[in-house]
Request: fold
Amino acid sequence: MKRIWKMELSQKEIKMGKRILASILLPIFVFYATSLNFLALSLMSAGAANGSGTMTVDDDSVIAGAVGQVFKFTFNPSEDMDGGAVKITVPNSWSVPVEGDGVLDVDGEILVEGKNGADLDADDDGNADVSINGREIAVNIQTMSASQYFTLKYNVATIPTLAGSYEFITESKLAGGSYKKLSDARQASIDVEAGPVASYQISAIADQVVGVNFNVTITAKDAYNNTTTGSDPVSINVKAGTGQFNGRYDS
Reply:
């Protein structure tokens, strides 16, 4: 194919063309780069969301009705939480939280301490900035990085007598944010286990035919009527005399 025309530019025209091209492309590049920065900041903010962090407890299994125990809860942040806060709700039937002198000799008394450099002291009086509203404990954070944490000690005079799992609901928020509950996997719970066997309950027995076997259910109970475990033989009195039940034991 025969070339009809050919464009030839001088060095001066080439330089001028580059300048014109740069003046067009540079603003476009700056716009998109700035947009990407804002997007990255937004994603970072989304990652550092309200409801972050993890709460654990040092003893998560206790016996119903046990007397005198101090639990230590530990909150570990997922990121810097300067100016944020954490709220813990004590479940019903547990001792109502109260502030004290730090000796932990009063039922429900709590003691909150910043660890590894975490600053919870708003007025520099040597005490953490804590407020209690009924069963809710709010811990206000001055400065706390992702490598720092705080502990909350909680004195309980008597463990609840009803067996079951009790979740100490924890919520957190960043500076200027709103409280949001931590996910279930990052919550602290305490399991109250049934105590030793204190009595046995025997199921009602209807009229039976002489010489025919029948089933009886015997349930082991602790002192607070929680179903518990027991393997000792059980002797009961019947009209014809005293007999002993021997058979399968189900926990």
